[in-house]
Structure formats: C-alpha cells, structure tokens
Amino acid sequence: MDLLTDRLDDLHMRAIGLVRDAASQRALERATEAELAAQVAAIAGFARLAEALVVDAVGEMARRSARAVRDERMTSHFGCRDTVELVQSLTRVRPQTAARLVRASTAVRPAVSDTSGEALDAPFPSVREAMLDGTVGVDGILAITDSLQATAPRVSAQARRAAADVVVAEARGEGPDAAPPACAALLRIHAQTWALALDQDGAEPRERVAERKRAVVMGVASPVGVPIRGVLLPEVAAQLQTIFDAQLSPKVAFDDPSADAEGPLPARDDRTRAQRQHDALAAALRVAASSGLLPTIGGAAPTLVVSVDADDLARGAGYAHVQGCDQPVSVTVARHIACGGVVQRVTLRAGRIVGIGTEERVFNRHQRRAIALRDGGCVIPGCGTPAGWCEIHHVTEHAAGGPTHTDNGVLLCWYHHRFLERIGWRIRMNRGIPEVLPPPWHDARREWRAVTTSPTRLRKRVEKRILTT
C-alpha cells in the first residue's frame, strides 16, 4: 500500500505552481527587504523539511541494502554497488552529497528490530526530533553528530545523547545563553566543544590515525599540469594556512602614502583563491629551497635544473625541460626560473659534453639585502608581498647584456615575476631607481612612476612633501 506517492505528487505540483508564480510575478524582486528576508527563511524551512524526508528515505534504503545475501539487497536490485551510488542516481546529486545523506541517516534513523520489526530509538533522538520539525537539515544534523559520534566507544551513548540535547537546544534558540537559533557552523563548534570535554583522552588515538593517513602524492604530469592530492596533519595544514593567509591577506594601503588621492589604483588581481594559494605555495617552496636549511642533494642545495637549447632561448620559442617533470615547459618559464637563479652553460657536440661554463648571474645575499632595503617588497603597486618572499628580477635580461647589479635588479613576487609580460606591467631603472608603467586597464595616463614600499624611502618622501607645502 503506497502511503506517500499521491501526497508527494500533489505537493510537487503545488511547489511547481508556487515557483512559477513567484518567477512570473517577480514576487521576490517586488518584496521589501524585510519581506525578502522572511521569505528566504520560510523557503529554507521547507527545504529542511524536504531534507528530512530524503534522509529518512535514504536510511530505509541503507537498511534494505545491508542484508547479508547480496542478491537480496536493494542496491543489487537497482544495479548499484552501494547505497551512495543508488542515492546519487535517484537524487542527481554529487557522490559527496549522497555520502552526506547516508551519514545523516545513520545518525537519526531509528534501527528496526530483526525479530519484532519494531522501530528502536535513534542514535540521537533529539536530533531526529529537530529534523522532523524542520529545525535542522542535513548540514545541522552532521554538524551536531559528526564530532560526537567520533568519541565512541570511549564516551557512552548516554553522554553523547545528553550533549546532543544541549546542542539541539542551541539550534532551537533555547540554549543556556538564550542566543538566537544557531546556524550549522555554530552548531559544529558547540558539538566539537562537547566532544572535547567528554573525550579528553581522545586526541591521542585520533592523532595516531592521522599520522598513519598523512600523505602527499603527486600525480602523473599532463599538458595542463601535475595533480596533487593527500591528507595533511592538522598542524601542517595550519602552518600552510598561515602561509596562505600571510600571502593572500587583502592589501588596503597603496604603496606611497604621499601620492595624490587621484593617483593610480593598486594592481588588479583576477586570480581565483585556488590560483592564489598555488602561487603562495610556489613562493614558499622557493624560499625554503634558497634558505640553506634543507638537506643537500649531491653536495649542493636543492636546485631546480632547467635545460633549454641556446638557440631556442635566444628566439624565445621552443621548449625547455625541468628535471623531475615529464612534461616540457615554455621558454618563458625557463627565463623566469633562470632570472633569479644560476645559469651554467654546458656545450654539447654530437651528444658529447665538450665544455662546462662557470655559474653566473645570481644576486648574492649582500645585493639582495640592499635591493630589499630600496624596494621594500614587490614593486608592483598594491601587491604588498614582503621582501623575504620575493624573487629578484633582472630588468634588462642577462642574455641582452643586463648585469647582475643592484641597478638592474628589482623585487617581484612569484606571481608578478612569472606573469609579468602577460599582465602588461613594464619595469625600467632610472638612475638605479625602479619605475613601473601600468597597463592601459590600470591607468589611462600610463605614466612611468617610481615605486617602493621601503619605510625609510616613504618617510623621506613624506618629509619632502611637508617641506614643500
């Protein structure tokens, strides 16, 4: 006997009518801000109730797919290997979303007695009740239960349920502090706090599991890049996040406080956050490799070796090859790597090495300190990357006769150094002082302008300006 299909069909048709009416009448656009806020809250409430039905249905499918005989499982009847695949095919969601639905159902779906068929208590009864009345959806269920379930079996089921009761009260706005109903992010914090309080000795077992699972794996190089995957230990992830935050924090101050208010704006940055994190990691790797603190390889510091034909380098066309990577790179990449590194010429004739030149064109530590004092950081306006994270760029290329001299070197972050030509900025030296010419999209006047973030030079500019006013 089908108890739900007719009612679901009726609800479905009414929902379609509501959605179409709202769109055709532009109801959301015509609402006041207060009305729109109330409408969004009401719509989200309906969505949570719909999720409650889905979670219960997924839980029943999981129960029917857990039978010992494979041919008797619901997943086998529908040609799926597991419940996640079945949920994915029926709901049209991602595998990750389907897995979340299965996890949520495990937390709130009552078990069924094998002997009597009677419904038993759910693992977290209060969370189930909050789901059924629309207080929490899938995000809320997992926010409350994930941390508490991780404490089993060290913490009793009764203690876990009691903690969940308190967090559910926070979800309803009935917590000890009488705070408004908490969102899923706050519920997760509350649940994690309870889990830590109940399971004070649980960190060590979790850390042992994390230590076993720690990994970083580089995939096979492809023409579009090298995939990377893995699991970081929490403290390693925190350190990496700190590096990202230091590199990616928004810069709100222009490089020259004495500049006119109508002067050019900081440089536009169209990178996605993922791309910016990649570039921050690239800069961190360069800093680590040049720090002198890493183990040596063959008696020398870890060195990225790039080989390129001299004729290709002169023409600016062709390919270069990076040791340790199967995919070739462009000559532009070779120039970027060589600009701040060491060049050693090796002469081959018929495959035989007939000449090895000496290492040349690398800025020494004394020159780097002097350039850092002069420039302060990356010279592209608005970038803000500090000197210690920057590379030194030969303004006039060494191949074109440019010397490795402080009058020919400027600080650039990894991103601006790597893509300088593509993003349109130009740099020149004017009596040993770096000047930049912005691209047309940045400043229609396109004037060469001296730049620095050096506190000493900026203070001198301000003092000079004060004296002339």
Task: Summarize the helices and strands and which ones pair or pack.
Layout: H1 5-24, H2 27-30, H3 33-64, H4 74-77, H5 83-91, H6 95-108, H7 125-132, H8 138-149, H9 157-172, H10 184-198, H11 203-213, E1 215-218, E2 228-231, H12 234-248, H13 273-290, E3 306-308, H14 310-315, E4 319-322, E5 329-330, H15 331-339, E6 346-349, E7 352-356, H16 365-375, E8 391-394, E9 409-412, H17 414-418, H18 420-423, E10 426-430, E11 433-437, E12 449-450, H19 455-468
Antiparallel strand pairs: 1-2, 3-4, 4-5, 6-7, 8-9, 10-11, 11-12
Notes on the structure:
The protein folds into two domains: 31-197, no CATH class; 235-296 and 363-469, no CATH class. The protein has helices spanning 5-24, 27-30, 33-64, 74-77, 83-91, 95-108, 125-132, 138-149, 157-172, 184-198, 203-213, 234-248, 273-290, 310-315, 331-339, 365-375, 414-418, 420-423, 455-468; strands spanning 215-218, 228-231, 306-308, 319-322, 329-330, 346-349, 352-356, 391-394, 409-412, 426-430, 433-437, 449-450. It is mostly helical. A hairpin with a 2-residue loop joins strand 6 (346-349) and strand 7. It has 19 helices and twelve strands. Helix 6 crosses helix 8 (138-149), helix 8 (138-149) runs parallel beside helix 10 and helix 12 (234-248) crosses helix 13. A three-stranded antiparallel sheet has the order 3-4-5. Helices cover 48% and strands 10% of the residues.
